[in-house]
Design brief:
- The chain is α+β, with helices and mostly antiparallel strands.
- It has a domain of 44 residues: YefM-like domain (YefM-like fold), CATH 3.40.1620.
- It has 3 helices and 3 strands, in the order H-E-H-H-E-E.
- It has a 3-stranded mixed β-sheet.
- The N and C termini lie far apart (70 Å).
Length: 83
Amino acid sequence: MSASDTAPREQVNIHHAKTHLSRLVEDVAAGAEVLIAKGGKPMARLVPLELTHPARRPGFLKGKLRISEDFDLPLAWDSPHSS
């Protein structure tokens, strides 16, 4: 059971949702759930977005990157001896 299954739900009609969308989105971002109804019948549910991050895989680029031996040498235009 997720948190949204137990959260109190606010039900609004479509016109109210259109005119107050910014506030509804703020409420949802804070954890609320909003049901959007048409003619009193729930038609849609506005819920917080659950972001998932891809799992990190240490070493997955091993052997695929190469750093040049001279990568930290001054560039020709950066050298104090260039004119």
